[in-house]
Amino acid sequence: MQEAFIELLQSTGFSAITGRELVMIAISLTLMYLAIERKFEPLLLLPISFGILLANLPLTGFMDAPNGGVVGGLLYYLYQGVKLGIYPPLVFMGIGAMTDFGPLIANPSTILLGGAAQLGIFIAFMGALLFGYSPQQSAAIGIIGGANGPASILVATRLAPELLGPIAIAAYSYMALVPIIQPPIMRALTRKADRQIVMAQLRPVSKTERILFAVVVTILVALMLPSAATLVSMLMLGNILRESGVVERLSKTAQNELINLITIFLGTTLGATAKAETFLTLQTIGIILLGLVAFAGGTVGGLLQGNLMCWASRGKINPLIGSAGVSAVPMSARVVQVVVQEENPGNYLLMHAMGPNVAGTIGSAIVAGVLLSRFG
Q1: Which position among 116, 132, 133, 371 has the lowest Cβ density within 10 Å, counted as fewest Cβ atoms?
Q2: Which residues pair with 70 in a beta bridge?
Q3: Would you say residue 334 lies in a domain?
Q4: How far apart are CA 186 and CA 195, in angstroms?
């Protein structure tokens, strides 16, 4: 009887669990707490944290590859959408269907803010090279600074698949932590008087302008930088579904069912790549730290450009909207609104902040294409 009990115990995960796996489980529960209790971007953090939990429960085989006649684990097959680069463009389609490009079209100068916010990508790229990462790995790490999860995944799968787990988790975690990371930088790099600036109302943008914008951007990017065409074209396709007004059912599907389903698959399988034996390494710690530098650097770049435009416009542009140049749509734009209203409760800059926010999304996809064409 005792031997049977021992055999039963040895067949359970309790006998196989390691200290490292317990650490990863603790990390997953912490992220789950932040998602549920603190509401730090739960759409991203909750599936990722649960995926981390599943990956570190021993003997479950969720991420096991097929072996001979034995089929693989459930998450292994779902992960192929990440590995083959299918999920990121579909996420971009959903983002395009949910996003109003009107603020960018109405105020084209905000594209400069989106471009300046890509500074963090190049800071982290150079830092990774100095720390001994290969050019391909450095490019994959640097793209975290764009705060663009799909772009980070696509670049990592093409250039450094061995680093995909830490890079993707760092990118999405920092996106979720925008409300914590950005405000201190925003206050440190802007003057109180400038944070109180009220910007003039944006002009109305016609339906024709919106559709032409999506078509022209698709053509120009595809011709000038084919490696960026996949992400940008799907972003614009989603936006045309939204703005055309003739395919409401397709637009709603892209905004809701499609992106929700892909988010579940993407978040859970990315979390499941964070197995203890591969995640708890000095290399991962380096990626997490460089990712933070990249994200902070992007915020700094956008704010410095915002200050410059504030000065050049003689106080007509609130420099805080520069921080929305990082591609965390619409989280960073919402953070701008929160910080602005702390200074002036009657000031509404959300739509102004969406201009650089959208520009940053396009910009980070273009930078991802540049890195792929250079190092791919």
Answers
A1: 132
A2: 67
A3: yes
A4: 9
For residue 63, being part of any structural domain is answered with no
> Does residue 352 sit within a domain?
yes
Q: How many domains does the chain have?
A: 1
Is residue 162, in this structure, part of any structural domain at all?
yes
Taking only the tens of pLDDT, the chain with its 376 residues reads: 666 666 666 667 667 788 999 999 999 999 899 889 988 778 888 999 999 999 999 888 899 899 877 899 999 999 999 888 899 999 999 999 999 999 999 999 999 999 999 999 999 999 999 989 999 999 999 998 888 888 999 999 999 988 888 888 888 878 878 888 999 999 999 999 999 999 999 999 999 999 999 999 999 999 999 999 999 999 999 999 999 999 999 999 999 999 999 999 999 998 998 888 888 888 888 998 998 988 899 999 999 999 999 999 999 999 999 999 988 888 899 999 999 999 888 899 999 999 999 999 999 999 999 999 988 7
For the entire predicted model, the pTM comes to 0.90
User: Residue 338: which of 193, 180, 225, 127 has the closest Cα?
Assistant: 180
